[in-house]
Amino acid sequence: MDERTDSQLVAACRKGDREAYESLVRRHSRYIYAICLGILGSPTDSEDMTQEVFVKGFTRLGKLREDGQFLAWIAQIARNQCRDFVKVHSRRRTLLEQQIPIDADESADFHELHTALARLPETYRLPLMLYYFDGQSSESVARALNISQAGACTRLSRARRELRKLLEKEADR
Amino acid sequence: MMDERCSEYRDRIPALVSGDLPADEREQIEGHLSQCAVCHAYLDALEEDDRLLEGFVESFEENMRDLEHRIVGAVRDAAGPGKVSVTVTGADPARNRRFRILAAAASVVFLLLAWQLFNRPPLVPIAWAEVITQVVEAHNYVCRVWSDTNLPGDNEQESVRYLSKEFGFRNDIYADDRLVLTEYILPSERAFIGVVPDDEAWMRIWLRDSEIEEVLRGSSAQEMVADFRSASYRELGQKRIDGIMASGIEVQDPDFIKSFFEGGWMRLWVDVETNWPVIMEGKWTADGGRLQIRFEFTDFQWNVDLPPEMFEPDIRRNYELALELDIPVVDEQHAIEGLRVFADIMRGHYPKRPVIMTALNQYFDERRIRSRSQRQSLREIEQLNRVRSMFEFYGDLLKEGNDVAYHGARVMRRDFDKVLLRWQLPDGNYRVYYGDLRQETVSPERLAELERRF
């Protein structure tokens, strides 16, 4: 575990220390993955997108103005990349939304959840994914969505409520 | 029994699960829950959802570790040797439709042949073998292909592919919903033909008899499916695609792309009921990750009626034959000639790696900083075709296990004393080509001395 702060790691990257960037990847990949999964809804696409985001971050590190703002900056790249992806693939979006991955061993447990999550609007799926992938803290949801903590709690509550409705619909099928 | 207050409480029960309610509100709701079985059941369901979501996230743990490794690898590729930043100035010839389309047409043949450079991996005793056998034995198919690259300009393409084991291969390529190129591989004419309606032009690449079958095989989704016989695939589980429950497998960096791309992955999703492919998707990268190509094969139809007329090229009387090429001979002499031609085009640089798409990306970069006429572009496509011999020759050397090494990323034409390419001969000595393409046969000791110069 690299003890250096993000700011120190970014400064080291700028001096050519590639391993410092790898520490940033290990530290923040879950968070970025959560953003991608929250926007794209497809685990497979989100893995690819997380990879692309970090590669892009690496090649554009020179454009990061404040070393301490790495996380906010890379999260913005993730949001932009994901939204571009959705826009470019809008023609195929229906197909993407219907891609509901199921782990080979856990299909029975998660099938309905996958289906419901895939149908949940991004505005609710994104806070849920951030909450569960990033330490179950409404503070991190608030930071990622640039809203107040109270606003994040409200969004999470609504997301749970909408998810429950979708799960009930799935159970009735 | 639900009363009128239930809906009000229900709005706040999710916040209770998250622990986000102030103490007074929590007590109020808990008081209601102790008396209302319906709302209590709702709370139980939300708590169950919470556990389910936690389990869902935990199920990603292993994938997250793999993902970290993948990202670190991709970052290393991006930071690899030879990485250059190119400033785009002046006109961008890659945006020139004719140039781009004909370049694509020329490169597709590279792709088809590169597919064949390596022996197939051994069969593995899996249920997937049945899927593969079914597909490989189909006598024809139609499918839709979507692809996109990260090259400058809009490179998104869709095409409809037809393959008949009897009549050949046809690929209608669309950009912005307009037909821009039709490719044919015709066993009866021993040729690859590309027709560009917008330019009223067409091109022909003559194929050798021995290559017809290989090219046809290489162009087929069937052959791509057969490549999944690799024992190194991993199961992806199941997902619903367009209403169909499909099961998937994935291969990473398969051997069969190694002369064409530096790495990538390909996934195959098969209808669990019929065993026919639903989607084949992938992403290949070259030039240290600077060139990326994503593709998807979808909407498969198998064993359909494909009449022979479909495989007759639509070449109108007024169309000009813009380019005519022979498939280059693959031997040492032609391989070295290919390197010479590449260095001529690229001002003394060689392909950074013995990978076709890496070389093409270097070439595209060079084209972006130089502005030349269309006619020259066609001549250069002809030259690039000759370069291809090098990659196939290198692939053959690798296949034969000749302790081969290539140093194109570090050696230029001016480096007369550095080893560009070498391989071991049957007598234990090494054939060496230097940066200036001078050839020499040296002992292993001398080679070690030469390679210390890096």
Query: Residue ranges of chain A: pLDDT <50 for 5 or more in a row?
Result: 91-107
Strand content of chain B: 25-35%
Query: In what range is the share of β-strand residues of chain A?
Result: under 5%
Biggest sheet statistics of chain A: none
**Oligomeric grouping of the chains:** heterodimer
- Helical run tally of chain B: 12
Low-confidence stretches of chain B: 81-126, 371-376
Assign an overall shape of chain A: elongated
C-alpha Rg of chain B (nearest Å): 28 Å
Q: Give the topology string of chain A: H per helix, E per strand.
A: HHHHHEHHHH
Topology:
The complex is a heterodimer of chains A (173) and B (454).
Chain A (H helix, E strand, L loop, with lengths): L5 H9 L3 H23 L2 H17 L10 H19 L4 H5 L2 E3 L4 H13 L2 H12 L4 H8 L3 H24 L1
Helix pairs in contact in A: 1-2, 2-3, 2-4, 2-7, 3-4, 6-9, 7-8, 7-9, 8-9
Chain B lengths: L5 H13 L4 H11 L3 H22 L2 H18 L18 H18 L13 H10 L2 E10 L7 E8 L3 E8 L2 E9 L4 E6 L4 E6 L2 H10 L2 H6 L7 E8 L2 E9 L10 E9 L5 E10 L4 E12 L17 E7 L5 H14 L10 H14 L4 H26 L5 E2 L12 E6 L5 E5 L4 E4 L1 H8 L3
Helix pairs in contact in B: 1-3, 5-7, 5-11, 9-11
Q: Overview of this structure, please?
A:
The complex is a heterodimer of chains A (173) and B (454). Chain A is mainly α and 173 residues long. Chain A has helices spanning 6-14, 18-40, 43-59, 70-88, 93-97, 107-119, 122-133, 138-145, 149-172; one strand at 100-102. Chain A is elongated. The model of chain A is unreliable at 91-107 (pLDDT under 50). By secondary structure, chain B is α+β, with helices and mostly antiparallel strands. In chain B, the strands form 2 sheets. Chain B has a 12-stranded mixed β-sheet with strand order 7-8-9-10-11-1-2-3-4-5-6-12. Chain B has a 4-stranded antiparallel β-sheet with strand order 13-14-15-16. In chain B, strand 4 (178-186) and strand 5 form a beta hairpin. Chain B starts with 5 loop residues before the first helix and ends with a helix. At the A-B interface, helix 2, helix 3, strand 1, helix 6 and helix 7 of A face helix 1, helix 3, helix 4 and strand 7 of B. Strand 1 (100-102) of chain A pairs antiparallel with strand 7 (234-241) of chain B, so a sheet runs across the interface.
